[in-house]
Each structure stands twice: as C-alpha cells, then as structure tokens.
Design a protein that fits this description.
single chain, about 280 residues, alpha/beta, seven-stranded parallel beta sheet, 7 strands, about 15% strand, binds nicotinamide-adenine-dinucleotide
Length: about 280
C-alpha cells in the first residue's frame, strides 16, 4: 500500500457513540472530514441534532440518531439503520461514557484534597454504580457486539473503544465505578480483539488523560481547573478534543491494519509522572 493510502477512509461507513459532544464529536468530525460516511449516536437529542446539522452544512456525509447505549435492542436497530443509510460498516467507535460522581477525596489539583463523604464506598449508591457500569461497560459490550454481528460476515472492520487512564491508574477524586468500568472495558477490548483477529477485525482502545469536554458537569471547562491540571502535565497543558483526532484516524484507517488488542494512552505525558 502506498503511504498516501494509509490514512484513506474516504467512502467508508462509520458509527460513533456519544458523538454529540467532546471526544466523540471530535472523532466523528475527523472521520467525516476524511470522507467517511458517519452516523453520530447519542442520548442527548438536542446536541445530536445540532451537531449533525452543523457538520452537514460543512458538506460532510453525516446522520444523527438518538440512542441510549444501555438499550441494546435500540442500539442494534441504530446499527442496522446506519448500514442501510451508508451501505456498509467499516469503523465503529464505542465512545459514549459518563462520569461516576465524586471519588473519596475532593479537588483535582493535589493541594486542596480532603475526604469526601459523598464518594465514600459505604455511601456509594447502587443506582450510581449500576448506571456507570451499564453505560461505560455494558454500552461498550453492546456496541462491540452489534458491530461484530455486521462485520464478521464481511471479514473486515475497525473497532475502537474509548477507555481512560483511569482503566489502569487510580485517581481518588474520580468515583471508583468509573475506574472499574473502564478497566473492564479495556480488558473486554483485548478479549474481543483476540476473538475477532482471524476475521480481519482490529479492536483497540484510546485511553485519554484529562481533556476539556462536558463530562463531569463540564468542570474541565473551568479555567482554574485547567490551570491546576496543566501543572500536573509534563506538556504543561490539558488536552482538547482536537488532540484526539490524529490517533482516532490512525486507529480507524489502514495505517493500523496490523495493530490489535492495544490500549493507547493520550495524555500529554500525565501518566509518566511530573517532569517539572
Ligand atoms: N474528558 C476526559 O478527560 C476523558 C478522559 C478519559 C476518558 N474519557 C472518556 O471519553 C469518552 C467521551 O467523553 P467526553 O469526555 O467527550 O464527555 P462528554 O460528556 O463531552 O461526551 C460524552 C457524550 O456521551 C453521551 N452519552 C452519555 N451517556 C450515553 C448513553 N447512555 N448513550 C449514548 N450516549 C451517551 C453524552 O450525551 C455526551 O454527548 C467517555 O467514554 C469518557 O469516559 C474522557
């Protein structure tokens, strides 16, 4: 394959869950800008309608649909509708995710942390635990399953899961359900990669560090939070959704044809340690 073809996904069919905002929206945008036909799925009806319309006016081949990834039957129907509309399915991003409320300490910058009774294990509610596991792990399972059903017969496909550095590193300000779900999603990704490898379907994960999106009630949009977090980053800045586009395109394109079962961290060096 010529190098010029390595990142060519023009005309391919793609689905991105959680595409109404943040990283999923940036991923959908990157795929659409690269010529893919993209279905944006999200549980936020207003956002999905507005963003799909915005991308359409830019001339991209996109469509949007409301779906909750926890409704596995509706998700399967949304996949069928996407294939009917795009005539094919080549790329799927299992990206939808929610935060899990506070962890057992408060604060994000290291200096102002104190024990937080709301996030303590003994007060953590079943309701919150179940919803986080349902969306962040069950939703990934249902998305990968819906994709495998359609991709196995064609013996090709690219599946990408958004996990988190929280999949392998504990952050006590983040609720433990989130970390447990992300660790589960990372290992599920590996299991599915092994199962689907012989079908020429690659399955990988993106593990973001700290990105400015709407998750966690949009706390990352607070300039004070950004400044505090930037101090922890060896690259001296937090991540923005545009930063995810290159890695997303790499994992969705022929450039990553022989890469499977891998979780790639993108965090400005955060998990390396503090440089200065
Ligand atoms: N922002 C970060 O710092 C960060 C770090 C690590 C991992 N992540 C992961 O990145 C992914 C995207 O999050 P984001 O930061 O862009 O947040 P975001 O809130 O900006 O976007 C998440 C989108 O997912 C949608 N969504 C939530 N629950 C859904 C459901 N049940 N069904 C369908 N859609 C649903 C939301 O409506 C929203 O549009 C998540 O999996 C998140 O855990 C984010």
């Amino acid at each position: 394959m010529k190098c010029a073809e390595l990142f060519n996904i023009a005309g391919q069919g793609a689905i991105v869950t959680g595409a109404g905002s943040g990283l999923g929206l940036a991923i959908a945008e990157a795929l659409a800008e690269s010529g893919a036909r993209v279905t944006l799925l999200d549980v936020d009806a207003g956002r999905i309608a507005a963003e799909t319309e915005r991308l359409r006016t830019l001339g991209y081949a996109v469509r949007g649909e409301w779906v909750d990834v926890c409704d596995h039957v509706a998700l399967g129907r949304a996949f069928d509708a996407a294939v009917a509309a795009h005539d094919r399915l080549d790329i799927v991003f299992a990206n939808a995710g929610i935060d899990s409320g506070p962890g057992f300490v408060t604060g994000w910058a290291g200096s102002q942390r104190a024990r937080n009774p709301d996030g303590a294990l003994e007060t953590y509610s079943d309701e919150r635990w179940n919803r986080v596991i349902d969306v962040n792990l069950g939703g990934v399972f249902a998305t990968l399953r819906a994709a495998a059903r359609l991709m196995k017969p064609q013996r090709s496909g690219k599946l990408i899961v958004t996990t988190s550095v929280a999949a392998y590193q504990c952050e006590p300000a983040i609720g433990s359900a989130y970390m447990a779900a992300k660790a589960g999603a990372a290992h599920l990704m590996r299991c599915v990669a092994l199962e689907l490898a012989a079908f020429n379907i690659t399955v990988n994960a993106i593990a973001p560090g700290f990105f400015v999106t709407n998750i966690g009630g949009g706390h990352a949009k607070n300039p004070d939070v950004q400044a505090a977090m930037a101090k922890l980053m060896p690259m001296h800045r937090v991540g923005f959704p545009d930063d995810i586009k290159g890695l997303a395109l790499f994992l969705a394109s022929p450039a990553s044809a022989y890469l499977t079962g891998q979780q790639i961290t993108i965090d400005g060096g955060w998990t390396l340690g503090v440089a200065d």
